[in-house]
Amino acid sequence: MYDTFKTAIATQISALSGVSAEIVEPAVGVSNNMANGDLTLTVSRLRMKDNPTQIAKTLAEQWKADDMVTGAEAAGPYINFRINRTVLTRSVLQAVHATGSKYGWTNEGAGKRVIVEFSSPNIAKPFHAGHLRSTIIGNFIYKLHKAHGWDAISMNYLGDWGKQYGLLALGFERFGSEEELVADPIKHLFDVYVKVSAAASEEAERIKAMDAEAAAAAGPTIQDQARAYFKSMEDGDESALALWQRFRTLSIEKYKQIYARLGVHFDVYSGESQVGEGMSRAIQMLTDTGLLIEHEGAKLVDLTEHKLGKALVQKSDGTTLYLTRDIGAAIERYEKYNFDKIIYVVSSQQDHHLKQLFKTVELLGLPYADRFEHVNYGLVNGMSTRRGTVVLLEDVLHESKEKMHDVMRANEAKYRGVADPDHIADVLGMSAIVIQDMTARRIKNYTFDWGRILNFEGDTGPYLQYAHARLCSLERKAHVKVNPDADVSLLTEEVTCDIINQISLYPDILAASIKSLEPCTVVQYILKLSHSISSAWETIKVCGEADDVAEARLLMYWSARTVIGNALTLLGLEPVEAM
C-alpha cells in the first residue's frame, strides 16, 4: 500500500541526487516509529561518495512537498518522510473492501505448480502431536501458495508399507477384533500393533536366554514371520494385500474425519504402497549410474563423501526401504504432475533422510533435482491428556474442546447467546492448540501448556478469536452500515493511524511469509493488529457517534476484522462471529 508513496519519493530523490530511482526505491521503508515519520530513506544504501548524514541534510532541505509526500526531515544518515494520511487510509480501506477475502493475494506463482506433502501418518502408529505439527504447518504452506497464485496440490503420503504391516497382520490374527476395527480403525490397529510388538519383544528376550540349538529349534520368530508376510505383500500375494488394503481404506476414512475437523483438505491421498514402476526404475537408474553398491547381499548408495553416510535402498531379502520408495515416488510425481517445486513438511528428526534423498536425486542427474525443499519443525513436549502419556490427536482435540466448553459455560449470559456452543468450543479448542504451535518459529521445540492456551487474554488462539468476534458484534450493533466511500479524513487519531498502518502491511506479511514459510510471521502480525484494536476500543467508538464519524470508524474496524479473518483462515482456522 506504500508503493505509490515510495515511488514518488524515489522519483524526486533520484532527480535531486542523480541516483537511479531503481536504487532509491528499495532503500525506502516503513518507519519503525511513526512519531518520526511514515517512511524512512536509508541514505547509505544510495551508495553516494559523500557523508550520508550530510547528504541526508542536503536532500531534506531540497525536498519539495506535494499532495502525496507532505514533508521530509533529516535524522542523521536517514530522511523521514510525512505522507498524506488521508490518501493512504482511503487506498488501504478501499483495497480491503474491493478484494475482501483475497486482500493481499498476488499472482506471482501464476503458471507454476507446487506439491506440498504433509501430515503423512503411519497407519500402524498413533496419529499424534508430531503429525499435528506437520498437518497444520503444511496446510498453511499449501494455502499460502494458493494465495500467491500457485497451482498448489496438497498431498498426504501415508506410511502404509513396510515390515510393520507384516507385524500388524500377525497381530490382528492374534489380538484383532472386527467390531473394534470398524468402530475406530486407527486406535484399534495401534492397540494391536502395541500388543504384537510387546509379544515380539518378550519372545526375543526368551530366545536370547536359550542356547543356540534351542533357539534354532524354536522356529521362525514373530519378526521372521512379519518379514515373510511383508515379502509376500511385495510379491503380490492377494490374500495378504486384501487385508492390508482393508486396513488402509478404513484408516483413510477415519483420517478424513479428523482432517475435516481440522479444516484440512487433501487433493491426493498417496502412500509408499502407491509407488509402482518408479521404485524399480530408481534401482535401475542407481545401478546404471554406478551409484549402487552391494554389501552382504544388500544394496546401498555411498554418500560418505557428501558427509551423509551410506544409504540402504534394498535389504538382502529384496525388500525395499523408505529411501527407495521416496526416490521412486519423486520420479513418478514429476512425470505425473510436472511440478515446479515440491515441499516435504517433515520433522527435523528426518533431516538426514531428506538430505540423503535430495542428494541421491541430484547424483542421478535428474533435471528437476533443484525443485525439492524440506520444511522442518521441532518437537512438541508434554502433549497429554488427564490420563497422561502420549495420546492420539483426536483425544487431545476432544479434551481441548471440553476445556473450552467449561470456560464458556462460566459466563452463563454469553453462553446462552451462542448459537452452536458445541461447535464454537471445538473451534476455540483447535485455535488454542494451533496458535500455541505457531507463535514461535517452527524449528523450535515447545512444551504444550494447557494453562496458557485456555487464556482468553494475551497471545493465544482464543484471544484472536475473541478479537474477531468482538468486531463482528460491533458491525451487528452499529447504527450505520459499512460504507467504502466513508469520509476517512476523519480518522486522525494516533491509534487509528496505527491500525491503518497495520492493515496496510498485510500484503507485505504475505510476501514475507512465502519466502520464509513461517506461520509465526502471520500469527505475530495478527496479534499486533488485535492489540492495536484493543487499545482503540474504549476511545474510538462507533455507537453513539455522528453518522460520518461512525461510518469512517466502522469501515476501519470492518477492514481490520476482514484481515484478521483472512489471516485465521490462512492459518487453517475458522473465524468465529460470536462466542
What does this structure look like?
55% of the residues lie in helices and 11% in strands. It has 23 helices and 14 strands. It is globular. The mean pLDDT is 91.
Secondary structure blueprint with pairings:
Elements lengths: L2 H15 L3 H4 L3 E3 L8 E4 L9 H11 L6 E7 L2 E6 L1 H15 L13 E5 L11 H19 L3 E8 L4 H13 L2 H6 L1 H25 L2 H6 L4 H13 L3 H25 L5 E4 L5 H12 L3 E4 L2 E5 L7 E5 L7 H16 L3 E5 L5 H13 L8 E4 L4 E2 L11 H17 L2 H5 L4 H18 L7 E2 L2 H4 L7 H17 L16 H11 L1 H11 L2 H18 L10 H24 L9
Parallel strand pairs: 5-6, 5-11, 6-7, 11-12, 13-14
Antiparallel strand pairs: 1-2, 2-4, 3-4, 8-9, 9-10
Helix pairs in contact: 4-20, 6-8, 6-10, 12-13, 13-14, 15-17, 19-23, 20-22, 20-23, 21-22, 22-23
Major sheet: arrangement of strands: 7-6-5-11-12
The Cα radius of gyration reads 29 Å
Overall average residue pLDDT = 91
Number of H- or I-type helical stretches: 23
Low-pLDDT ranges: none
Largest sheet composition? 5 strands, parallel
Number of strands: 14
Strand content: 5-15%
Summing up helix and strand content along with how strands pair, one would put the structural category as alpha/beta
- What's the helical proportion of residues? 40-55%
Distance between the termini: 33 Å
Global outline: globular
Task: Name a few traits of the molecule.
579 residues; alpha/beta; five-stranded parallel β-sheet
In short:
With 579 residues, the protein is an alpha/beta fold.
